[in-house]
Design goal:
The protein is α/β, with parallel strands linked by helices and 248 residues long. It is built from nine helices and six strands; from the N terminus they run H-H-H-E-H-H-E-H-H-E-H-E-E-H-E. It binds zinc ion (2 copies).
């Protein structure tokens, strides 16, 4: 563990200690009751589209009630390298703001509440506890610029809540990929070719791996990561993300 990592860890611990949680709603800023779950006021909690009804059994995207297959069109047509995955909430303007607030406005305390929601959903779904949680890595240069990796921060809390080790050094980002936002699906795939490299194979072999990221869009990032991790023959590679978009 490098000096910088240690300093960052210390800073996070300090922030955990001094940050007063559950005072204001994380979406609208209204004062809330200390007992309101996830630091959301009642109105906002009702507005957030938690994915609790039908969803794709492979990638977790929400499915319309009239759509009959168990998998979304994307998972029917395309091969994915992960076993299965889920997301907590649907990506809309409110959730977009939340994710941006964490990522670009560095409101780190949001990661704690996202992790709470993700852990609660994981338990609700009755998924088997993973052996290891692996957050999607950022390229070191990007992480230096941003100051932290938002997925690693969320993962840290999920790991704490679930009592599962979080490993940030098993896989690394070897190429600085272009921001994916403006790319289509094929371009995203191309953009991510050989973007990840496994470092510590032995920590993955025969293990139940849970990849963690903030958003699932086309799944190309998680797929590229799962493909690389798959080389070490883990028992299974599942994923969880905080938010996902609909694809039908
Ligand atoms: Zn609110
Ligand atoms: Zn799907």
């Amino acid at each position: 563990m490098g000096y910088k990592t240690t300093v960052n860890d210390l800073l996070e611990t300090l922030l955990d200690f001094v940050y007063p949680r559950n005072i204001h709603c994380i979406l609208c800023g209204e004062a809330i009751d200390k007992t309101d779950p996830y630091s959301l006021c009642t109105d906002c909690r009702e507005e957030v589209k938690f994915i609790t009804s039908r969803f794709c059994e492979k990638c977790g995207k929400p499915l319309e009630s009239m759509y009959l297959p168990q998998k979304c069109p994307d998972c029917i047509q395309n091969v994915h390298y992960f076993t299965k995955g889920f997301s907590c909430v649907e990506y809309d303007d409110k959730i977009k703001k939340l994710v941006y607030d964490l990522k670009y406005y560095k409101k780190r305390y949001l990661a704690y509440h996202m992790a709470e929601m993700m852990t609660a959903r994981f338990v609700e779904l009755g998924w088997e506890k993973p052996d290891v949680i692996i957050p999607i890595p950022l390229h070191p240069r990007k992480e230096r610029e941003r100051g932290f990796n938002q997925s690693a921060l969320i993962a840290k809390y999920v790991g704490k809540f679930m009592d599962v080790p979080v490993e940030c050094t098993i896989i690394r980002r070897t190429r600085e990929t272009e921001t994916q936002n403006k790319l289509n699906k094929e371009e995203r795939k191309e953009n991510l070719k050989n973007a990840f490299q496994m470092i510590e194979k032995q920590k993955v072999t025969n293990k139940k791996v849970l990849i963690l990221d903030d958003i699932y869009t086309t799944g190309s990032t998680i797929d590229a990561c799962a493909k690389e991790l798959g080389k070490a023959k883990p028992k299974e590679i599942n994923f969880m993300t905080f938010a996902t978009g609909r694809n039908l």
